[in-house]
Amino acid sequence: MSVLIETSVGDIVIDLLVDQCPRSCTNFLKLCKAKAYNWSLFHTVQKDFIAQAGDPTGTGKGGQSVWGLIHGESRRHFVPELLPKLKHKKRGTVSFACVTPPAADGSTPQPVPLAASQFFITLAPQVPDLDGRHAPFGVVAEGLDVLDKFNDALVDDNGRPYQDIRIRHTVIIDDPFPDPDGLRIPEGSPEPTEKMLKSTRLADIDLLQPTLPPEEEERAHRREEANARALTLEMLGDLPFAEIKPPENVLFVCKLNPVTRDEDLELIFSRFGTIRSCEIIRDKKTGDSLQYAFIEFDEKDACERAFFKMENVLIDDRRIHVDFSQSVGKLHKEWMFARQQKLRGGSELQKKTQYRDDDPAAEAQYDMVFEGQDGQEQERVAGRSGGGSGREKSQPQSHRDARERDSGKGRERPERERDRAQDDGRSGYSRKEKYRGGRGDGNDGRRRRSRSRSGDRGAYKRRRSRSR
């Protein structure tokens, strides 16, 4: 004879000692059958000691037996079996919590302990302090892992769990006792009363999240994962915002023939409405069709009409498949372009850098500093007007010569250097003496070479004309 107790932390199966404790087992079975334990709290949980429940008020001061449920307050308690051989020497022992009320005159207590509906389950292998004071009537057969959860529960100084542990439902597996006269058995499990819910601290997790069918629960789980991924993409800048949705006027078409062109597809779908764009996606390198396309209509209704009419239609010997687009690539591209334009300034971007070559008038605003060859103080030279550009005037002769050498203006051909060396040798002066201030200015040789070369060219032309 067993009873299944469904709690918020797991299920427990209790085997009842019906042969040894018939009154206690009858009371427990009939209270479970009357759904008196449903939604009651485990109001006291003491680690490695006991977990107590069975009080509808959740205070540890209420509860009544099945006979009190039928006849009223006068039969609230009953006398359980207290057998010396039944002790709390096994983990998972189930006992009724007994009290010893005082005598009628208040002088001496009655020797017989009484019980009502409250029971407890031991969480330790041996609890000898409870022997002889409380009435064992069963033992936990299945669900010992639930007892570990009881031990791990966080409780306050009075042993009340911070998060509620409730009995949700009781199922009688075998009941050998007849029902007492007048016992009312509900057809289904009753809902918790408002008073029960107000007595809670932190509701159990399953009450905060109502039970859903497996399909809906899986769908909700996927939706949460998608929202988390979208939020991550928004933080990385891949999406403009996490709640972005695909456009409703874009149709996705796949299973196309590779020979189908954009113009053909646009002509076929244009009968449903105005088309903004029709693009067959192609390979970037080869330009071959990837056999799917996106068609953007001007109106949402046109997109819906095309969706219902063009499914499995034959185009270029291929039966196509159409669906509403789930891609946000185009929206992302437009958003990225707008974002880049905003960062760069777009059309409102103004030229911040002013170059002196672009505006000669602004050249006077810039000063150039050069260090003298003797290493003394620096010379500040500004642009001057007249006789060439201010940049040429402002630079020393050595700098201008260096620029001419780099640009190729001051370079001499090897032939000219050889001729100049020969002329210097005939005149009796070396190049060093010329540039040191010797006779002549070094230009006579250049003029003679130019005249001789021009004469040679003229004679060559005359010989060519005669031969012809």
From TrEMBL:
It is found in: Nucleus. GO terms for molecular function: peptidyl-prolyl cis-trans isomerase activity; RNA binding. It comes from the Eukaryota. One of its GO terms (cellular component) is chromatin. SUPFAM superfamilies: Cyclophilin-like (SSF50891), RNA-binding domain, RBD (SSF54928). Residues 371-468 are annotated as: Disordered. GO terms for biological process: regulation of transcription by RNA polymerase II. The keyword Flavoprotein does not apply. Keywords: Isomerase, Nucleus, RNA-binding, Rotamase. It is an enzyme of class 5 (isomerase). It catalyses: [protein]-peptidylproline (omega=180) = [protein]-peptidylproline (omega=0). Residues 249-327 form the RRM domain. It holds the Pfam family Pro_isomerase. Its main location: nucleus. Its EC number is 5.2.1.8. CDD domains: cyclophilin_RRM (cd01921), RRM_PPIL4 (cd12235). The keyword RNA-binding applies. Residues 390-445 have a biased composition (Basic and acidic residues). Residues 6-172 form the PPIase cyclophilin-type domain. Belongs to the cyclophilin-type PPIase family. PPIL4 subfamily. PPIases accelerate the folding of proteins. It catalyzes the cis-trans isomerization of proline imidic peptide bonds in oligopeptides. This is Peptidyl-prolyl cis-trans isomerase. It comes from Gonapodya prolifera (strain JEL478).
